[in-house]
Amino acid sequence: MQQFSYKEISTAFSAKKFFKKRSFEILTASSRHIPMREILELYLYISGSRDFGWIDYNGNYIAAHSFFKNLKNLFEDLVLWYPAIKRIKQQLTNLENTVPVKKLPLLTDAKFLYLRTDHWFNLRSGGSVGHVSGVVNEMRANQWLSQIISTDTLFEVDCTSLFTKVSPDYSSYTSIPELATIIYNEQLIKFLSSTTIDSSVIYQRYSQFNYSGVWLKHHLKMPLVLEFNGSEVWAMKNWGSGKMIHSILLERIERLNLQHADLIVVVSENLKNDLVASGVEAAKILVTPNGVSLTKFNTQLKSAVVRERYQLQEKFIFGFIGTFGEWHGVVELAKAIVSLFTAHTELRDKIRFLLIGNGNLLPLVKKIIADATCTPYVTYTGAVPQNTSPEHLAACDVLVSPHIQNTDGTKFFGSPTKLFEYMALGKPIIASDLEQIGVILKHNYSALLVPPGDIEALANSFYEMYINFETYKQLGKNAYTTVAENYTWAHHVRKIAKACSVS
To answer: Exposed/middle/buried for 47, CB within 10 Å: 0-12, 13-18, 19+?
Structure first.
């Protein structure tokens, strides 16, 4: 049966276009957690669809509700909406009126409760997967971890004895955008209030609309460490639609988290500066860049299997991995690939680009490549599980990180996990000279750096790297030394531990 992604369905709905297919499956991250399910199913019925259902990445299938059941569920959610938001606002008011007493430093035998509240399910790849597993596994290795509470199973994390999954109940509130995510606070707080917490410090990975860590801090008089990888308010305005039904509530919850956290962990100086400018106390913000596991990513990885799988055995390969987001510079990468092969047709039989991953901008990347008749020179793997990404990257001769400036003119605040993974593989790197990237990598020492967004400079760097590859191999060796000495997950977590006076 023909399949369409959740995004394709929701995009057609947002564009007010009829989805004129009668029989199909909708691929979603989790068949149990489908945002706006009732509205989307009603839209499909009105469009003329009849035989459709949902299937997740694990192959679990769930049939569509009937038209009238969807109407009933939508009506019930509309009735529940106002009182639910009223309850949430009252709880927020109570927390806002609680004076945030600083609880750091901690005792030397402190233990972390790792709290992950994202509503992302079945994640097998992406920077967040590497970050979560890197932090959790390093905490566990140092015996600083006592509990994990998460909305979903954590990929590449082997802490079964410490793990509790509190899966969101999506049996109601799913018709209204964002509402189920907001109401999850009540479900999680109910669980936290009735379970034994044998930790002495909360470590929460900040997520959209969630304030359960702040509640637990005050309920148990425990310190809260907030891992803050970026503002959800900013992301909504710049990477999302720019519109949210509960945007004011989102801002309120984000501000509450930042005000009440005892320590805020960020990955870049620019992110710290943004928080300070918004009124957050500088003294409680710790900057520690992302990292890498040298057990997982290293110079000894074999690549023959991957090269054979994609029929790239005799080719010189430039590689990129990512979720094809707006900040990754993948459109500029595609244009630079076209520029290279247009200017140097003699390289078409010698060079290949291996683009690893999936995401919003992948269709546009493919179109740019196809329109220039360069498709034969580019291999798309789609999303690959995180545990197979090292061997995919190891198959490449050169690795590329073409990040671009934020579209709103603010400074790039990221700390790309791919950057550290590239460095750990000891491969020559071509990267944008952009904020933290240009600090960690040194031009002509550990990478070739190009101006962000400069398509011709990027294309020229491909040519330069290919022609003088033997010389540039030293860049990869220098990059490995830099990451091994400064930017492993062990370095990252020990800085957090030191700030908490754990070690």
So the answer is: middle
Cα(179)–Cα(166) distance, integer angstroms: 17
Residue with tokens 């957050």: 280
Q: How far is CA 232 from CA 271, 280, 361, in A?
A: 13, 16, 20
Sheet containing 316-321: order of strands:
378-382, 351-356, 316-321, 398-401, 429-432, 448-450
State how far the alpha carbon of 104 is from the alpha carbons of 135, 495, 500, in Å: 20, 15, 6
Pairing type for strands 61-63 and 51-56 reads antiparallel
- Extended beta strands in 175-270, E state: 201-205, 224-227, 263-266
How many Å from the N-terminal Cα to the C-terminal Cα in the chain? 56
Are 322 and 355 in contact, with CB atoms under 8 Å apart?
Answer: no
Mean pLDDT, the chain, rounded, equals 91
Please tell me the pTM assigned to this model.
0.90
**Burial label, 148 (beta-carbon count in 10 A; 0-12, 13-18, 19+):** buried
Residue 461 has what pLDDT? 97
* DSSP string covering 385-454: -GGGHHHHHHT-SEEEE-----TTSPPP----HHHHHHHHTT--EEEE--THHHHHS-BTTTBEEE-TT-
The answer to whether 122 and 29 are in contact (CB under 8 A) is yes
User: How do strand 316-321 and strand 163-165 relate by DSSP bridges?
Assistant: unpaired
**If residue 381 lies in a helix (H) or strand (E), which one and from where to where?**
strand 378-382
Token pair 């020229």 is at which residue? 460
User: Cβ–Cβ contacts within 10 Å for residue 20, how many?
Assistant: 9
Report the percentage of the chain scoring pLDDT > 70.
97
**Tokens 């003119």 label which residue?**
409
Contact 409, 415 (CB under 8 A): no
Q: How far apart are CA 312 and CA 128, in angstroms?
A: 29
Contacts of 266 (CB under 8 A, 6+ apart): 228, 229, 272, 275, 285, 286, 287, 288
Q: Residue 313: what are its φ and ψ, rounded to 5°?
A: -60, -40
CA distance 399 to 446: 12
What are 113-156's pLDDT values in tens digits? 999 999 988 877 777 888 899 999 999 998 899 999 999 888 88
Beta bridge partners of 210: none
